[in-house]
Fold this protein.
Amino acid sequence: MSPKSTFACAICALMLSAAPVLAADPAMEERVKVARGAIMQLAEELKGELVGALQSGGPVKATETCSIVAPQISTNVSQGKGLTIGRTALKVRNPANVPDDFEKAQLEAFAARIAAGEDAMKIDHAEVVTDASGAKTFRYMKAIPMAEKPCAVCHGAELKPELKAEIDKLYPADQAVGFKVGELRGAFTVKQKVD
């Protein structure tokens, strides 16, 4: 199977295996549906860019491409959907993706659920949170499990020297390596103000 089709299968499986929304709240169900659609769009667009870069220049080119296009794609999808979408992790590559308190708590809960044997492909969480001022925000997170292909090339335990050098150049404080297949790699995260 080609890297392109492997990555496409992983993204489709990730989205199709999302757990059902726990509450039978039509407004919440609609927000979750929109959030999942935004994640699918982000994943598909990013996949297209990364696969093209992998095919034209290998992992070094893909890392460089990701550093430039991932934030642009996130911004475009966010604006198009009227929400904020991104990726975060407990061990980040890009310091702009450091989790906030809510995200960190969910990532830790996701990791515990995986450690307890839950299928990482089905782990997500939706909630409306209220801040100290009374403002409400819809929050949604979807676990990203570590896959062997193509994820391990850039996030696994053994990186090729030229790739490691490129990552160190682009992300001097990189923490996003050393993952084993099936571990929690990170999560997609969505925020939307609730009126």
